[in-house]
Design a protein that fits this description.
The complex is a heterodimer.
Chain A: H1 14-21, H2 49-55, H3 57-74, H4 87-99, H5 110-121, H6 142-166, H7 171-182, H8 185-191, H9 197-216, H10 224-243, H11 247-266, H12 273-305, H13 318-322, E1 342-347, E2 354-361, E3 369-374, E4 383-387, E5 408-413, E6 419-426, E7 434-439, E8 451-458, E9 472-478, E10 484-491, E11 500-505, E12 517-523, H14 539-555, E13 581-582, E14 594-595, H15 599-624, H16 632-658, H17 669-687, H18 692-712, H19 714-718
Antiparallel strand pairs in A: 1-4, 1-12, 2-3, 3-7, 3-11, 4-5, 5-8, 6-7, 7-11, 8-9, 10-11, 13-14
Helix pairs in contact in A: 3-6, 3-7, 4-5, 5-6, 6-7, 6-8, 6-9, 7-17, 7-18, 9-10, 9-11, 10-11, 10-12, 11-12, 11-16, 15-17, 16-17
Chain B: H1 27-37, H2 47-65, H3 78-90, H4 101-112, H5 128-131, H6 135-159, H7 164-175, H8 178-183, H9 190-209, H10 217-236, H11 241-259, H12 270-302, H13 315-318, H14 325-329, E1 338-343, E2 349-356, E3 371-376, E4 384-389, E5 406-411, E6 416-424, E7 432-438, H15 439-442, E8 452-456, E9 472-476, E10 482-489, E11 498-503, E12 513-518, H16 540-557, E13 578-583, E14 588-592, H17 596-621, H18 629-650, H19 666-684, H20 689-700, H21 713-716, H22 723-748, H23 755-760
Antiparallel strand pairs in B: 1-4, 1-12, 2-3, 3-11, 4-5, 5-6, 5-8, 6-7, 7-11, 8-9, 10-11, 13-14
The chains are: A alpha+beta, B alpha+beta.
Chain lengths: 741, 772
């Protein structure tokens, strides 16, 4: 039966419980049968055409909607033959898969793998560079790649239909929700290009559907269908988080639902403990382990496909790189390092980069030359091992002197000839540490250029009298200050090009991997070449490493006050449809696309959220005043078809409010879907007791307006050709810059 | 729904057969029935409480005032708050991100002792003696408030009906806390803040206890006092908002119970409820807001002279201050005046010279090859521009230029006219190039492109355009781009001067320029004659609103890192302190740090409390009831309120982007001390079985007629041993006192410590000075 406590997520002390108990007696046993609100034309006896239509609505409607979805998403999709907006990124990543070159990006790989797949299916060889605004070469079937992407966007429409139906909305409301998704200009536009957003949207919509279906099966625990939808939920969670980490928000929604569900079951003292344990266990498997496996799998494929060296190498550990085809790392480089060797030095912490220096100086502190960690290969990463100032000078002609554990050396930056140096000046960001700079030259300097090598471990040998390329992990201790060289994944501001801050930390923590370094590339002509890259790094370590690197560089996407970015927008602008986004150049010759939503969908759904808040407060206050106007079915309906979508909206919206990174209009799209569901619920709720005529009139007006506005604004989705001024009629506000008129 | 079993059953655990007539907050019932059940003589003297309260207050004054004259130098943020007091005394306008109340109090103290504000507290370590500053008087104010805070903590516990040991423990934790002592002996705002926060809790508890006599005189008194305390809190620092959240949440719960149709005291009509609601809104929102505004009014009334804060305000605002350079030097600009125009943000002048833009830039784009227009930071005759009217060049003099007028600008040296057109600028493909054209072109085919609109910031239509005070944007009339410049220098071909271009985004304040001087006017020209100073006035609300916006904006800008800034997660564990002051020759230092033992005990008690609540919820959910009715009520309502205060004063810091310091935890620490006192009583005292029996009996039937009043601790614990609580309190306070004494030299700043002594105090690797 329907449990009382399902009403609200509030769980407080015993006292509240009493208040909630009140309506137990007399609560009707509501059976979870989908109410059939369609009672039109019941008078007629023989099945008329309309009746047959009515009977077959469940199959006809989705087909019609799907067909329309495919039409709107695919129509003239190849019109613009230039690389549009972020196609420059995602197309390029797709190319990397086809060329099997290792690259690095902040998003997980699943979406980009699919882009790569679409390129493969289109017979594309990966040779195009996808420079923004460039024309596609004739041999590249970009139309197919876009169609492949549009497929995901179109599929959202029938999924939305089934979701609304599963949430027990009446037929008119189901249609309204579906129409609002179908006739949403921003969804249409974003689905028509080689971007990840259509897949993200698909994942979000699919997860919501699976969740609703799973919820619908709650009376049939452990039945096959129940299992099916549980695992489908898990799979789609896995898919959506593997496309973009934004998928974690819809995961959180499912998580909240599961916690509430289990809390109810926990309170059911009649349920055997073993059953309860089974409930917990199945959810752990279905909603945590399964999605995680999917996520892992996407990375496994990623690593399996990308076996060649590429632009993202430097993000990974040296050992990983050594196993890429075509890499310089570990190939023919001498095994043991000697004085005079030219090396690059890699930080071994997760997401660590190469020790780097460049001629730019610190704007504060010492004002000397910057030392950073950098993730790209570059001549500024090269350092020479030099003897300390007490020892005999480096003699290029003499026999090589090998470097041992505990030896004190200098590191000379090869491009600028300066020494790696530290002094008692606070580091620019991590103020508790000392600043590290490049200072002096071969002859000029002091003992603050001296670093002592402390070997932590060596995968190849126990012999500590030499340090080895790739396999030796060592720390560099500043001889004078006693501090350790560290790069802790803290990004410098714009003056340091957002590279990673390098400091000298006073804490002696031998286990801190951010103070561990290894030699990555090693050049010394006097030494025999070896093959240090025969050791493999384990998959799981690579996986964690790559994920940490993703997180770190995502954090670096903070807004840059020095840069003018008129494409970015802010969170408060989205729900009120304050701005749109120009996806390409605005020349007369270019086919122009403008990212803007359907005004009714945006404004209506935003208003709906407010109305829903008032509605909830209204019913809660009435409840406390003793009105019992809602049946258990009504309460459940508000709870699952109203409150959960609203929570979903908050989960997808608030993070962008708090987040300090650069945000764009399309970040609102997943949240918008939940706002649409809320709007559908509200329309359903307010019309449920109205006369038929009022109902039909309301829906007719809403449906017609949604469709009308969609068609009115359709040129921004299908591409505006010719001078932009002729589209001035759509420019309702100055901030809608689809036209310069 | 999820389960098949009827949920009702598991709710029935507590009292079989009861009719569940009471809902939340059953204290009301409680009072009555216990009263009815044990008809003990009401000879409850609270003398022991009075004695304890007296002793603790004395101790608080001793700990706060002892050695307050040391050090006789400026310490840490005294640099700021001492300075602000001086500004008030000198009546010079200054700007700060905190509201004025706390600073006004310091100024008041300074005024009482006759300080004239001549010393500006410039550097940490400046001598007070040499500069003749009555710093002891200044420091007495926070010390006084800090000492009273301890008393208020005691009163909160006492008023909430806790036993003697619980009250002593909670007050003792604050009394013997090095952080509270350290922060309240210096010229800082936190003493005022913490005191106001504690007072708001106390007043609210007083108010809540009067809930059975709504709208009585006393009820109103405590309601308004709560509001006043809250207002002082938020008028000192904006973190005072958290106290509003604490009290606000409690009020919402209270109102929720009042709304209950099955309320124990009888349902309220909606009109009655409305009255309750309105009274609280009036007392806790409206009045505090008025008080808050009042302090700003005082602020503006005192600060009538221009000072270091002028630059944060708009020119209109600055004109309300006397002695203001803006007011005295502003000259109305006429057509045919020759002027120099300065960019407000980068201080560069609008400049031009005969060199031309290169045909092709490095990235391959082409230019118009027109004459260069750049930004140049130094005085130069090439910065001179003459203003020509938009119409024919009619040479009519003595016409003022008004807001939104269209003008042309003639570059005097090269005799060319400023122009912008749809050619990309050297660095920004999105922005328009600025160049100049000959007079012939300017009055010929390019006429439209040489027209610019003067848009005065916050200007009224027809407002006259003035030098210096008249900040404006220069909008290119046909294309509506704003003249803009930035700091990235152009390449060698433009002598590394700044790029000037047309910005399509007109709104940003980086487009603002000002006319620095009219170079065509001789120094003794009548138009330069200074009119007698006339200070303008602005409506208070407008001034307040402007200041408020500016404060919030600058508050958000406080993101720069500080060597001793810390993150919220580290506070309950007291991982790190703040170095306030050091003196090398005596090896003395003040290191702001809490009493580690006290903090760790308080923080673990918070965890224990959360654990108890969770365990209780889980067992209730499984139909097991381990607590008696009254203990649970106290645990959830009274201790829960303290816990809420802690949570609302702690967790919001996690989402705050600005610089944070350990002292931000002080209000939360005070709340954690309250929880500690309450929970130690809960754990170490036995349940009063007889009460529970009485409770059951009373529930079953008769309603007591005894007058409602609150239970004192003595009544609650009558006849039962408090031995456990006393022992626990004794042990904890002994430990805390030991920790307090151990860290005293770091709090009071003397005596100086030897290396070994310093190292012994580096418990969690505290970064103390003089460790070697």
């Amino acid at each position: 039966m329907a449990a009382v406590n399902d009403r609200g997520p509030v769980v407080t002390g015993a006292d509240l419980g009493d208040a909630r108990r009140r309506n137990v007696p007399g609560t009707p046993q509501t059976v979870a049968v989908v109410p059939e609100p369609d009672d039109k034309k019941k008078v007629k006896k023989e099945p008329s055409f309309l009746e047959i239509l009515d009977q077959w609505e469940w199959i006809i409607a989705p087909i019609v909607f799907t067909a329309l979805a495919f039409f709107t998403r695919l129509y003239k999709i190849g019109l613009s033959n230039i690389v549009t907006w972020d196609e420059a990124h995602f197309g390029k990543f797709g190319s990397h898969y086809l060329k099997r070159e290792f690259y690095f990006d902040v998003h997980p790989p699943a979406g980009k793998l699919l882009v790569g797949l679409s390129g493969y299916l289109a017979g594309y060889n990966g040779s195009f560079e996808f420079k923004s605004g460039e024309t596609y070469p004739p041999e590249l079937n970009y139309t197919f790649m876009r169609q492949f992407n549009a497929f995901w966007g179109a599929i959202c429409v029938p999924l939305a239909y089934w979701t609304a139906k599963e949430l027990k909305l009446r037929r008119n409301a189901v249609w309204l929700v579906t129409l609002m998704v179908l006739c949403e200009n921003s969804y249409t536009t974003i689905s028509r290009f080689i971007l990840l957003d259509s897949m993200l949207l698909f994942g979000t919509v699919a997860t919501t559907l699976c969740w609703a279906k799973f919820h619908g099966q709650r009376k049939n625990s452990f039945e096959p269908e129940w299992f099916f939808w549980l695992f489908m939920t898990g799979l789609s969670i896995g898919f959506v988080t593997s496309v973009k980490l934004v998928g974690l928000f819809v995961t959180a929604l499912v998580g909240l639902y599961t916690i509430e569900d289990l809390w109810n079951k926990f309170g059911d003292t009649k349920m055997p403990i073993s059953t309860l344990a089974a409930h917990v266990g199945t959810r752990v498997v279905g909603l945590i382990i399964l999605p995680f496996l999917v996520y892992l799998l996407s990375f496994a494929i990623h690593f399996a496909v990308l076996t060649n060296s590429g632009p993202g190498d430097a993000q990974m550990s040296s050992l990983f790189q050594a196993n890429l085809r075509g890499t310089e790392v570990g190939r023919n480089s001498p095994l043991e390092v000697a004085i005079g060797s030219k090396v690059t030095i890699k930080n071994m912490g997760y997401g660590g980069g190469l020790l780097h220096s460049h001629v730019q100086t610190y704007p504060e502190g010492s004002g000397q030359q910057q030392v950073t960690c950098y993730h790209h290969k570059d001549a500024n990463n090269d350092w020479f091992f030099y003897p300390n100032r007490r020892d005999a000078d480096y003699d290029a002609a003499a026999e090589p002197r090998f470097i041992a554990d505990g030896q004190t050396i200098r590191l000379l930056h090869s491009q600028t000839g300066r020494n790696l140096h530290s002094h008692q000046i606070a580091a620019p960001i991590t103020k508790a540490d000392w600043e590290v700079s490049s200072y002096g030259n071969i002859t000029v300097g002091d003992e603050k250029d001296h670093w002592k090598i402390e070997v932590v471990s060596d995968a190849a040998s126990r012999d500590r009298s030499k340090i080895r390329t790739l396999t030796t992990a060592f720390r560099l201790k500043h001889e004078v200050l006693g501090c350790y060289l560290r790069a802790g994944n803290v990004n410098l501001p714009q003056w340091g090009f957002k590279q990673i801050e390098v400091t000298c930390t006073k804490d002696n923590k031998p286990r801190d991997t951010y103070t561990h370094w290894n030699i990555e590339s090693h050049i010394n002509e006097k030494l025999p070449p070896g093959d240090p890259g025969q050791y493999r790094s384990p998959f799981f370590k690579d996986f964690v490493h790559l994920n940490v690197a993703m997180m770190t560089s995502n954090n670096a996407l903070v807004p840059d006050p020095d840069k003018q970015d008129d494409l970015a927008s802010q969170w408060w602008q989205w729900p009120i449809l304050h701005v749109g986004l120009r996806m390409c150049g605005w020349d007369d010759k270019i086919v122009k696309y403008f990212l803007l939503g359907n005004p009714l969908v945006y404004w209506g759904s935003t208003a709906g959220l407010g109305v829903f808040g008032l509605l909830t407060v209204w019913y809660i206050l009435r409840w406390q005043r003793g009105y019992r106007e809602l049946s258990q079915f009504d309460i459940d309906q508000i709870h699952y078809a109203g409150i959960y979508p609203v929570i979903g909206w908050f989960l997808h919206y608030l993070p962008f409010v708090i987040m300090a990174r650069v945000t764009y209009v399309h970040h609102y799209y997943p949240a918008l879907y939940f706002a649409i569901l809320t709007f559908g619920f509200l329309t359903d709720w307010f019309t449920r007791n109205q006369k038929k005529i009022v109902q039909y009139a309301t829906y007719a007006v809403l449906d017609a307006t949604v469709i009308g506005l969609y068609i009115y604004f359709i040129p921004i989705c299908w591409g505006m050709t010719g001078p932009n001024r002729q589209y001035g009629y759509m420019k309702w506000f100055d901030t809608w810059r689809m036209s310069d008129a | 729904m999820a389960t098949t079993a009827p949920q009702g059953t598991l709710r029935q655990r507590s009292v079989a057969g009861s009719k569940n007539k009471d809902g939340a907050s059953s204290d009301v019932e409680l009072d009555k029935l216990v009263k009815a059940a044990n008809q003990r003589p009401k000879a409850v003297s609270e003398n022991d409480h009075r004695i304890a309260f007296f002793i603790i207050t004395i101790l608080a004054f001793i700990t706060r005032f002892w050695g307050i004259s040391h050090p006789n130098e400026v310490v840490f943020d005294e640099v700021h708050f001492g300075k602000f007091a001086s500004y008030y005394l000198e009546k010079t306008y200054f700007f700060d991100v905190h509201p004025p109340f706390g600073k006004l109090l310091f100024a008041f103290v300074g005024w009482l002792v006759g300080f004239d504000g001549h010393f500006h507290f410039e550097n940490i370590g400046d001598s007070y003696i040499a500069n003749k500053v009555p710093y002891v008087a200044f420091r007495s104010l926070p010390a006084l408030l800090g000492a009273l805070t301890v008393s208020v903590v005691y009163l909160i516990m006492w008023e909430s009906g806790y036993s003697l040991p619980a009250c002593i423990l909670a007050a003792g934790l604050v009394l013997l806390d090095n952080a509270h002592i350290g922060q309240t002996r210096l010229i800082l705002l936190d003493a005022t803040l913490v005191f106001a926060m504690a007072c708001s809790l106390l007043c609210y508890i007083k108010f809540y206890k009067l809930r059975h006599e709504p709208f009585s005189r006393k009820w109103w008194k405590w309601l308004i006092l709560t509001g006043f305390a809250l207002s002082c809190d938020i008028s000192t620092k904006y973190v005072g908002l958290f106290a509003f959240i604490t009290i606000g949440s409690a009020v919402v719960i209270e109102l929720w119970d009042l709304l209950d149709i099955k309320r124990p005291g009888g349902a309220l009509t909606l009109a009655q409820f409305g009255k309750h609601f309105a009274a609280r809104a009036f007392g806790l929102i409206f009045l505090p807001f008025l008080f808050y505004l009042f302090w700003f009014q005082v602020h503006f009334t005192i600060l009538t002279r221009s000072g270091p804060g002028d630059d944060f305000m708009t020119p209109e605002f600055q004109e309300t201050l006397s002695d203001n350079i803006m007011l005295s030097n502003a000259i109305t600009i006429d057509y045919y005046d020759t002027i120099s125009i300065k960019h407000k943000e980068t201080k560069a002048y609008l400049h031009s010279h005969p060199e031309r833009y290169p045909l092709r830039y490095d990235d391959g784009r082409v230019s118009s090859q027109g004459q260069q227009v750049t930004g140049y930071p130094f005085n130069d005759t090439n910065n001179y521009w003459q203003i020509l009217p938009a119409g024919a060049d009619d040479k009519q003099l003595n016409r003022h230029i008004k807001n939104h007028d269209l003008i042309r600008l003639r570059h005097v040296v090269t005799d060319t006219i400023l122009l912008s057109h749809d050619v990309a600028s050297p660095y920004f493909p999105t922005n328009q190039e600025f160049t100049t054209v000959s007079l012939a072109d300017a009055y010929g085919d390019r006429a439209a492109d040489t027209l610019f609109e003067v848009r005065i910031e916050h200007g009224k239509p027809n407002q006259e355009w003035k030098t210096i005070s008249g900040h404006f944007k220069l909008i290119h009339n046909p294309s509506k781009v704003a003249m803009w410049t930035h700091t990235k220098p152009l390449p060698e071909w433009a002598f590394k001067q700044q790029e000037i271009n047309g910005n399509k985004q007109i709104a940003p304040s980086s487009n603002v320029w000002l006319v620095e001087d009219i170079s065509s006017l001789p120094a003794n020209h009548p138009r330069r004659a200074k009119v007698a100073k006339k200070v303008k006035t602005l409506p208070f609300l407008r001034k307040w609103f402007e200041l408020q916006r500016s404060m919030f904006w600058h508050n958000n800008q406080l993101t720069a890192s500080h060597p001793y800034a810390s993150l919220p997660y580290s506070w309950p564990f007291l991982l790190r302190g703040v170095s306030f002051w050091t003196q090398n020759d005596t090896r003395q230092q003040i290191y702001f740090l809490g009493n580690p033992i006290g903090w760790w005990i308080a923080s673990s008690v918070l965890a224990i409390y959360a654990g108890i609540i969770l365990a209780d919820q889980f067992s209730l959910r499984r139909g097991m009831d381990a607590l008696d009715h009254r203990s649970r009520s106290r645990l959830y309502n009274s201790t829960g309120f303290f816990f809420l205060a802690w949570a609302t004063h702690y967790f919001p810091f996690y989402v705050m982007g600005r610089q944070l310091f350990l002292h931000h935890y002080l209000p939360a620490h005070l709340a954690s001390a309250l929880v500690t006192g309450a929970l130690v009583e809960f754990i170490f005292s036995q349940d009063a079985v007889e009460h529970e029996v009485a409770h059951q009996a009373a529930k079953a039937g008769k309603k007591s007629q005894t007058p409602k009043h609150h239970l004192t601790a003595r009544e609650r614990f009558a006849g039962q041993s408090l031995f456990g609580s006393w022992v626990a309190t004794g042990v904890i306070l002994t430990l805390v006192a030991a920790g307090w004494y151990f860290f005293l030299p770091l709090t009071y700043g003397y005596p100086g410590l030897t290396v070994e002594q310093v190292i012994r105090r580096k418990w969690l690797g505290y970064d103390l000075h003089f460790a070697k």
